[in-house]
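Hi P.,

Sorry for the delay on this. The queue was packed all week, but I finally got your sequence through. Input first:
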Amino acid sequence: MSVTPYEAASGGSAVQITNENRRGAASFSFNGSAGWYDLVVQYFDEDDGVSQFRLFIDGQVVADWKADNILPTPDGLPHAHTSNRRNITGVALRPGEEIRIEALAQGNENACLDYVEVAPPALE
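Then the structure:
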């Protein structure tokens, strides 16, 4: 789906759940070196529902959260005001492991996901 303004999402768009059962997933394989990483999940949290997200590494749940912030969304669409970031720190990854986010949309909120970033741990 397109996000307005264009700059509010990677490439101007995000993925969302549109099916009747209100469930969906996005995944990719990790291609880096084995080690500890931080994961950054950018998603949209509208005020017309409370979507739920769950992050898996090779089938194991490493984080889950609800998109339940109170943010200004006068039009009920994902945009710069509703863009949120979830940081998951200290995740062990090996080459070929699947990184998967499962989502359950609720209300008129479609569990919109912008991106997942895999980064070296931040220096303290």
